[in-house]
Give the backbone structure.
Amino acid sequence: MPPEVITRLGASVQPLVFETGLPDAPYSTRGTVFLVGHAGRAFVLTARHALFPEDIAPICVFPSDISQRILPLKDVFFVHKDDVPDDFMDLAVIEIDMNGINDNEVGNARLVDLALATGDWLSKSETAEMFVLGYPEEHSFVDYELETLTNHRWALRGRYAGPSALPYLHTLEVSDAHTLSTFSGLSGGPVFAWIEHPGNEGEIILCGMVLRGTPISRRIHFLDRSVLLDALNVKLTQA
């Protein structure tokens, strides 16, 4: 897989940053989000458990790796964990307020176009090269003295390890966990497959979203893409 593929997709994957309201520690960072385009609108996807939407703090989502501006966001859609506690609804959908974008830097945010990234990956999963993009907790932190926010995006490669024991979940066997002691922080990150075609042509397909995993097991559990699409379509009907 060409390295530029990961670089290009990485621009759509950003850290989840919270405003705490505390004067001595105004920001915190925890988790991963990715930006998608669907049906002519733009959204932020992440894991419900990373966002705590029942008591959500103001969040900051950046349009790119180098921007210090923040995307204008609208309401968040999620299913309350008391109603559906299962992993297959552990996601949150936040719409980007397109009417609030009046700056080129913000307007040039890179989105994953779901119309171009939703091909069949499962039938080709035995030979597909898969990877996760996200921000491990141990490499994401705020230095309050220097007033700097540090987030290092990682790409973990692996292969498909089959369906999970729970519905709508799959497992990925990570081949290069590097020195990570935990996969905490990767929740909400996208899972992609690189499918090789005859003639050395490749295709990138979005497979789903990371929910949990451990370096010891070398397993990451991820939510099937179909659930993400269903949630986005419900969000579209809410106007």
